[in-house]
Design brief:
GO terms for molecular function: metallodipeptidase activity. By secondary structure, this protein is of the alpha/beta class. It has a single domain, classed as Metal-dependent hydrolases (TIM Barrel, Alpha-Beta Barrel), CATH 3.20.20.140. Strands 1, 2, 3, 4, 5, 6, 7, 8 and 9 form a 9-stranded parallel sheet that branches. Strand 7, helix 7 and strand 8 form a beta-alpha-beta unit. It starts with 8 loop residues before the first strand and ends in a 6-residue tail after the last helix.
Length: about 325
């Protein structure tokens, strides 16, 4: 019989970064049986004023529809949402620039609903290296930021971060570390994908590598559940099925809402053509939301048992969050 406590968990997705963003994609996830999703509220390219407005808008939408959504403060909220037929929502922050070089900002974002953070979005900043920039390493400020993330009970994420820098972050963290949306470099050569060493080191922290459904990182033009499952199987074979999850990284733009960062925004800087991006990320394609309904069969087709499939679809992230987030049961 299926485990009634099983949680299906998408570790990362992106709505329009606008206070009036539609939550229709969240409703689609809920209809597909998802219990929990982490949504991006800002990146290094977004100023704090924009991020705060986005969080305020998202929180207002969640509060206005208590029949559909639950704002997550704890794992208990995720179970409460599942019991009530709602989907639970956490926020994630992509980059350290919104922290304003102040470790105490981490706890403030936590109070506003952020439950995971990584320190660089493709490019270097005063905290950490981006995966599409020169190698420098975790800075002294970065080490203090890791301590702040651990102290605030947030998930330490290494997506979008420079390869050597992620190894330093994982060595510095006192808690399990995740990659919320990253794929194995051995399968697809792309600067955003991660090496076997990174995958092994993440697993050694007790963490989870969540597979992205983005076309360029999967190495296909139109991603399917089978493509995602192939990458899951690689990580599971390398470090064990208990260290792999799903973060499809779906992006949803709304033409009627302008969520472009204000000022002189250069998309080619953040997504450099030399790193394999065409037309910034406009040419990227995403595994559709209904991939979630196809994943159980696709994962079992690559050799996972029903129990292992449930672990990948959410149990592994649930285990890590239970350990990391404050106020959780042992």
């Amino acid at each position: 019989m299926p485990d009634k406590t099983m949680i299906h968990w998408d570790a990362h997705m992106c709505l329009a970064l606008h206070p009036q963003a539609s939550f229709a994609p969240i409703d689609q996830l809920r209809a597909c049986g998802l219990n929990h999703v982490s949504i991006n509220v800002g990146m290094d390219m977004n100023p704090v004023a924009q991020i705060m407005a986005v969080m305020a808008g998202y929180r207002a939408t969640i509060a206005a529809h208590p029949d559909k959504y639950v704002q997550v403060n704890s794992v208990a909220d995720i179970y409460r949402a599942k019991a009530g037929g709602q989907i639970s929502i956490a926020f994630d922050l992509e980059g350290a620039l919104p922290l304003l070089e102040r470790p105490d900002m981490v706890a403030l974002y936590a109070q506003l609903g952020v439950r995971q953070i990584h320190f660089a979005y493709n490019r270097n900043n005063p905290v950490a290296d981006g995966c599409h920039d020169v190698v420098r390493g975790l800075t002294p400020l970065g080490r203090r930021m890791v301590a702040a993330v651990n102290a605030a009970g947030l998930l330490m994420d290494c997506s979008h971060t420079g390869r050597a820098c992620t190894l330093e972050i994982m060595a510095e963290s006192s808690q399990p570390v995740i990659f919320s949306h990253a794929n194995p470099l051995t399968l697809v050569e792309h600067g955003r994908n991660i090496t076997d060493e990174q995958i092994r080191t993440c697993a050694a922290t007790g963490g989870v590598v969540c597979i992205s459904g983005v076309s360029g990182f999967l190495g296909v033009a139109q991603p399917t559940a089978a493509d995602v499952a192939r990458h899951v199987a690689y990580v599971a074979d390398l470090v064990g099925v208990e260290h792999v999850g799903i973060g499809l990284d779906n992006g949803f733009l709304q033409p009627e809402l302008d969520d472009t960062p204000p000022g002189d925004f250069d998309a080619g800087y953040w997504w450099p053509p030399s790193a394999g991006y065409g037309n910034a990320i406009a040419d990227m394609r995403y595994a559709p939301i209904d991939t979630w309904q196809q994943l159980p069969q696709a994962l079992q087709a690559v050799g996972l048992s029903a129990e292992e499939t449930d672990s990948v679809l959410g149990g592994n992230m649930l285990r890590v969050a239970t350990k990391v987030w404050h106020g959780q049961p042992a």
